[in-house]
Amino acid sequence: MKEKMKTEMRFCEICGYPVVNDESGVCMCCERCGWQSCGDNIEYEEKYGISYPMVVPLSRAKMQYREGKPFKPTFEDFIHGLDFYSEMAFTYRRVKYGVCYRSDHSVLFYNARQVWSFPTKDAFYKFASIGGDLLKDIWDQVQEPRYM
Ligand SMILES: [Zn+2]
Predict the structure, then answer these.
(1) How far is the CA of 9 from the centre of ligand 1 (A)?
(2) How do residues 22-48 score in pLDDT, each as one tens digit?
(3) pLDDT confidence tier of residue 21, bands split at 50, 70 and 90
(4) What mean pLDDT is predicted for residues 10-15?
(5) What is the tens place of the pLDDT at every residue in 44-60?
(6) Which whole-number Å values give the CA distances from 36 to 42, 45, 54, 92, in the listed order?
(7) How far is the CA of 99 from the centre of ligand 1 (A)?
(8) Distance 40 CA to ligand 1 centre (A)
(9) 143 CA distance to ligand 1 centroid (A)?
(10) How far is the CA of 52 from the centre of ligand 1 (A)?
């Protein structure tokens, strides 16, 4: 049995532009502002302090849009994303980095050549560094912080 999927018209929760759900019926991508949404971002923000799949919480994303800024999660949002999804990634100076929880809740931070381990997410937040620079201090230059 195959039913034809209803296409449901919605409006972008950031800019109000009309958007159509994709085949999954859950996700949308706005052609005007680039915002993507899969699920209830109001609930995601309340419960986890994130959105999905954009990471930036919805209310701050609206502010960023109004100010003409790109949607970019803060390092704190990124950590919330780690709590929500357990595996995160970003790019810095064209190198891809991954961050993930292990079963004992320690944090692995790695790229293709090296692995660093932190006993807790707080230790990761405070002490993770790249080339001697603390990640929290160079976050402005980090690109595409995202779910893995
Ligand atoms: Zn939009």
Answers:
(1) 13
(2) 777 779 999 999 999 999 999 999 999
(3) confident
(4) 93
(5) 999 999 999 999 999 99
(6) 14, 15, 6, 23
(7) 29
(8) 15
(9) 21
(10) 15
3-state secondary structure the chain: CCCCCCCCEEECCCCCCEEECCCCCCEEECCCCCCEEECCHHHHHHHHCCECCCECCHHHHHHHHHCCCCCCCCHHHHHHHHHHHCEEEEEECCEEEEEEECCCCCEEEECCCCEEEECCHHHHHHHCEECCEECCCCHHHCEEEEEC
Residues 4-12 have a mean pLDDT of: 70
Residues near ion ligand 1 (CB < 5 Å) are 12, 14-15, 17, 30, 32-33, 35
The domain spans of the chain are: 9-66, 75-147
Give residue 101 CA to ligand 1 midpoint distance, Å: 32
Spacing, Cα 23 to ligand 1 middle (Å): 19
